[in-house]
Amino acid sequence: MHIHILGICGTFMAGIAAIAREAGHTVTGSDANAWPPMSTQLEALGIQLMQGYEPEHLQPAPDMVVVGNVVTRGNAAMEYVLNAGLPYTSGPQWLAENVLHQRHVLAVAGTHGKTTTTSLLAWLLEHAGLAPGFLVGGVPQNFGISARLGSSKYFVIEADEYDTAFFDKRSKFVHYRPRTLILNNLEYDHADIFPDLAAIERQFHHLLRTVPGQGRIVVNGGDAALARVLAQGCWSEVLRFDDATGWQAQGEMQDFEVLRAGETLGRVQSPLSGLHNRANTLAAFAAADHLGVPLATLREGLMQFRSVKRRLEKIGEVRGVTVYDDFAHHPTAIAVTVDALKRQGAGRILAVLEPRSNTMRLGTHAQELADSLRQADLCFVYARPDLKWDAGAALGAVGDRLHLHGELEALIADIAGSARAGDRVLLMSNGDFGGIHRKLIERLKS
Question: How much is the mean pLDDT over the chain?
Fold first, then answer.
């Protein structure tokens, strides 16, 4: 079958492409923009990428068009699909009907930590010999790919609450029907499609309705929003983490005892820094435990975990200045990422932020940004021309630590001029940040 994917370079749709290709289909795709790591992953798989959304990309007609949620009415390729009567579906629906329908699905949902927790869970099952399939919104470094079919009945998926497609406004995750579900946390996000937190909580309730009675819901015991979701109705086993009734950690961030219902199971050492990653680890352990994986195996697997690209990933060191890349784009994620780096050792932190997500550009979290950057020694913010808010006013509380720029090249020059040996530069964006990663390293060299 020939499948053409519209919006193929998004992390989720690139994963769909990789799985379809592995399943033996001919896969092509179109997108407005393509950047690593997804573009390089697709090219390595032999998938033809086409720039833009031209009707000619759909000639001769594919057997199925899979439509990403970046595609809207008015898109030239989509209008051609509709006028020509070509068969089309969404990415989540294609995955559900062609891959997930006969699998034990382990899904990871929540505002923060989905990618890391999904990657860790997939690796723990792989280490246990369970050979899972997976689809992650990033590239787990243990696998080097974001998605695969797997050779067992298990499939691990990052379960996003964003909408499915322009013709299906339900959250993506309602298509997955998990048997094991992790709920990491829940905050207001995606202001472009959800009016308030209650609307997101309702979508999470819809997700709970799809978990079978014999399934397991692993939930953050300290999250008030998730407690409200459970109160709307739950028909499955609930196992809490970061909670005395369920899975707990006692000790340091990277060296701690694991307890279950107050019983000590053993000590683990983790390569992941940050209290948030300790919570992610507990959630992954509790989900793997649902499949009967023993703690000794989980402990061994954790020690071999190499995390995910763009999650506090060290990308270079020049003249004593270390540069990190991270996907953080929500105030909570920014704060915990800066905190995790702070805990790794001495040296100034130069936090560099691009407010790029739809929610960020709308200004929904603008008043929280200053506080999220409080642990950084210097703060460099790219005031994109499409921001709907006054960055200078919103970030005024940062004080003289703030370096605000409306031009990317000026921002890079300022960072390079301010950095000194021993500093750690933390680049944060959920996009390619205008290629700042390579440009900054070259500027530091010169």
Answer: 91
